[in-house]
Amino acid sequence: MFRRTGLLAAGVAAALVLAACGGGGETASTAPAAPAAPAGGPLDLAGAGCPATVVFQQDWQPEAEHGAMYSVVGPDRTIDAAAKSVKGSFVAQGVDTGVDVEVRPGGPNVGFQPVPALMALDDDITLGAVNTDAALTATGNQATVAVTSQMTVSPQIIMWDPASHPGATTLQQAAAGGDPVVTSGDVLPALLASKGAMAAAQSDTSYEGTPARFVSDPKILQQGFATAEPFIYQNEIAEWNKPIAFQKVADYGYSIYPEPLAVRADKLDGLRGCLDKLVPIMQQAQIDYLANPGPTNSLIVDLVNEYQTGWTYSEGVADFSAKAQVEQGFVTNDPASGVFGQFDPARMGEIVSTFVPLLQQQGSLSGPAPSAESLYTNEFIDPSIRMGTP
After folding, report:
1. Each residue of 109-119: pLDDT tens digit?
2. Does 278 share its domain with 188?
């Protein structure tokens, strides 16, 4: 089963929620615990007002794009296959921070509920992965504030078969023949149509997250992720087993921050002391994960195998993803400031001006639109943390 866009069509969600069945009991590791962080130091979360268990809520199944979250789960972890979660000591930069961490997957594991809705329902969730376009539609008690970016550019792509679209090097060229552009939601094709990359009539929102249609009808164009589909189609789908062509939708204005870590807006003040230390830890955790992804990727694959939801994920895909995140520029320092994990105010303003009309047009946003400033804060960012520095 493949991943889809965050703004999932309701019909697809209903059909795929059946895949959430399965899983057994708990599996505990017998690995030794990490040494304790120095009391009062930057890695001591126990004395910073953090919850006894920092709970991370992801928006999809375990995968390498979530590497930073999974990388801080200590070696004393317990996998709960029934609850679909993994818990252990919160270990950062080789030391135990004094609190535990729990990582929960999203998607079919939670009935495809959006992360802001889950955060509104469950006070235990500390931080959730909330795409910026999803944050725009989360209002009232579901409003969230992003506190650090983990990926800088969205790896969302539209892909096509090179043989069926000879000579096409861009999405606009591949779509020029009028073939269907298959996605799982309305916002992405509406954006692409507004940018002239495709005609609105080409939009087909019936994507179900499987390769079946693309393999049987290679003239279609289909959504995917640059961090997964190029490897999967060439190496793991026997009926295809050849390269695909693609272009990032970020090239056509899909400027969202993908899955930044966000806190519920009404909990921001109460968590400030914790976030002062937790946010820099997560800035560094993403950099450290990408420098040595192997151990965390093994955990991610183990979790997929333990959860038994119908989602499949191999070490090959995980390794490819970690490399692609860096080599294709999806995880970078903030281009405006040079700081890793920091949000660019100008880009946030652009996101609001681009996506609010689209979301209103699709009926996903009603009432007053949030301001760009309400969607994020850089106050907890450590400006010394940058990719490529010792």
Report:
1. 999 999 999 99
2. no
